[in-house]
């Protein structure tokens, strides 16, 4: 299985880069992991609704250009489907068994995701009703993917 994390913006903080690097190393036993970043637009302090929509549209166009046609797309959205770690693992396993060979997880920028990206999604997932920094969500998502593969393989990790 190939898994791509498609994210808006670069990881600037060393501690986030180190955490992502650790999960990249751990996941290399289970899948081919690819990280793709696209440029985030600068958002003015008091951006109007029109400016916000323009920013989302530009970021969305960049995201969609990087999504392969045959990929199963999972967006991370606060309005998405909430699931337990077990259900998440089950979904990854189900996709693999059903012949899906490429999953693309999409994490938007500080304003979220454009409606065109949400429309392209095959599944929208929410990790919480809370809002997290998109840089931290990479680490959280990678940890959950790692946890899922450990559970799928019957290996100890999940408690």
Strand and helix layout:
Blueprint: E1 2-8, H1 14-27, E2 32-38, H2 49-65, E3 72-82, H3 85-97, E4 102-107, H4 115-120, E5 123-126, H5 134-152
Parallel strand pairs: 1-2, 1-4, 3-4, 3-5
Your description of this structure?
The protein is an alpha/beta fold and 159 residues long. 43% of the residues lie in helices and 22% in strands. The chain has five helices and five strands; from the N terminus they run βαβαβαβαβα. A five-stranded parallel sheet has the order 2-1-4-3-5. Strand 1, helix 1 and strand 2 form a beta-alpha-beta unit. Helix 1 packs parallel to helix 5. It is globular. The two termini are 25 Å apart. The mean pLDDT is 95.
Task: List the defining traits of the structure above.
five-stranded parallel beta sheet, 159 residues, globular, alpha/beta, single chain, 5 helices
Short description:
By secondary structure, the protein is α/β, with parallel strands linked by helices. It is built from five helices and five strands.
β content, as a range? Answer: 15-25%
Low-confidence parts, pLDDT < 50 over ≥5 residues? none
Structural class determined from secondary elements: alpha/beta
Q: Helix count?
A: 5
Overall pLDDT score: 95
What kind of sheet is the major sheet?
A: 5 strands, parallel
Shape: globular
**What share of the residues lie within helices?**
40-55%
Give the total of beta strands: 5
| Subunit arrangement of the protein | single chain
Rg value: 16 Å
